[in-house]
Amino acid sequence: MSDAEAVGRERGPSEDVPTTSEAIDSPLLEVEGLRKEFGGVTAVDGASFRVAPGSFTGLIGPNGAGKSTTFNCITGIHDPTAGTVRFDGRDVTGLPPYALAERGLVRTFQIARELSEMTVLENVMLAPPGQVGESAIRAVLPGLREEVERDEADVVEEAWETLSFFEIDHLAHENAGNLSGGQRKLLEMARVLMTDPEMVLLDEPLAGVNPTLEEKLLDRIDELRREGLTFLLVEHDMDVIMEHCEHIIVMHQGRVLAEGDAETVQRDERVLEAYLGGDV
Ligand SMILES: Nc1ncnc2c1ncn2[C@@H]1O[C@H](COP(=O)(O)OP(=O)(O)OP(=O)(O)O)[C@@H](O)[C@H]1O
């Protein structure tokens, strides 16, 4: 019997499982005892894990495991019923998305209807938090006009660089609503990058993306990681998770069932049983 099998037989789902991320000494993101109830439904039931800075971490689990709810609790969409979320050593539990973005923790958002009527370039230029409103106010203050103009020129330059990085600069003047599903995902990533994040959370970034664009998106993520960005990804495509994520967290029934590298997770019998719908 392998170690994993032995662990699987000795422990039930309600007990704590050993977590390799406990070994991460200085996590960038730390989720502890996270719990979220919706009426009588417990969607997340005491999930705890850590994400190392500069890592590409995957969050997986069968349908209904609590991945999206966990994601939404971390990114300020849901208020957790209990537990804490720490980012860069600070408690950020329950902070709204804009406050998290100011601290460097961002998630991708689908392009909203109003934004789909704007061009790709406008979408990217609007992404930095507070940019437009702030500039508009500062533009009317005497003495600051020059500085504002310089700021805006920087944003335009950065917007073009970001579009070119994702190879969608040729679409700059196209309405965002006319993009294909895959091109939209690239635009969503470009918008995120404009906020100068430290950590990016991605929920199903490859859903509906054709293989060519998928490769492009994954290449860009790998490149950004090499520059020091941290990624946490919820994704159903196991091949992508196993190939690209060096740390994988498996959720089941609202808790962390197992975690480790691809090999560790793949040979963990509890993971297999959870995916097959077995009683773990
Ligand atoms: N707003 C809500 N109200 C009530 N129950 C909810 C709500 N959101 C999620 N749930 C329930 O919480 C549980 C976890 O759902 P969640 O969407 O987080 O899982 P998931 O792992 O992301 O699933 P999937 O892979 O199918 O997207 C499910 O039983 C789901 O029905």
Automatic annotation (TrEMBL):
<keyword id="KW-0067">ATP-binding</keyword>
<feature type="domain" description="ABC transporter">
    <location>
        <begin position="29"/>
        <end position="278"/>
    </location>
</feature>
<feature type="region of interest" description="Disordered">
    <location>
        <begin position="1"/>
        <end position="23"/>
    </location>
</feature>
<dbReference type="InterPro" id="IPR032823">
    <property type="entry name" value="BCA_ABC_TP_C"/>
</dbReference>
<dbReference type="InterPro" id="IPR017871">
    <property type="entry name" value="ABC_transporter-like_CS"/>
</dbReference>
<feature type="compositionally biased region" description="Basic and acidic residues">
    <location>
        <begin position="1"/>
        <end position="14"/>
    </location>
</feature>
<keyword id="KW-0547">Nucleotide-binding</keyword>
<comment type="function">
    <text>Probable component of a branched-chain amino-acid transport system.</text>
</comment>
<dbReference type="Pfam" id="PF00005">
    <property type="entry name" value="ABC_tran"/>
</dbReference>
<dbReference type="GO" id="GO:0005886">
    <property type="term" value="C:plasma membrane"/>
</dbReference>
<dbReference type="GO" id="GO:0006865">
    <property type="term" value="P:amino acid transport"/>
</dbReference>
<dbReference type="GO" id="GO:0016887">
    <property type="term" value="F:ATP hydrolysis activity"/>
</dbReference>
<dbReference type="InterPro" id="IPR027417">
    <property type="entry name" value="P-loop_NTPase"/>
</dbReference>
<dbReference type="GO" id="GO:0005524">
    <property type="term" value="F:ATP binding"/>
</dbReference>
<protein>
    <recommendedName>
        <fullName>Probable branched-chain amino acid transport ATP-binding protein LivG</fullName>
    </recommendedName>
</protein>
<dbReference type="InterPro" id="IPR051120">
    <property type="entry name" value="ABC_AA/LPS_Transport"/>
</dbReference>
<keyword id="KW-0029">Amino-acid transport</keyword>
<dbReference type="InterPro" id="IPR003593">
    <property type="entry name" value="AAA+_ATPase"/>
</dbReference>
<keyword id="KW-0813">Transport</keyword>
<comment type="similarity">
    <text>Belongs to the ABC transporter superfamily.</text>
</comment>
<dbReference type="Pfam" id="PF12399">
    <property type="entry name" value="BCA_ABC_TP_C"/>
</dbReference>
<dbReference type="InterPro" id="IPR003439">
    <property type="entry name" value="ABC_transporter-like_ATP-bd"/>
</dbReference>
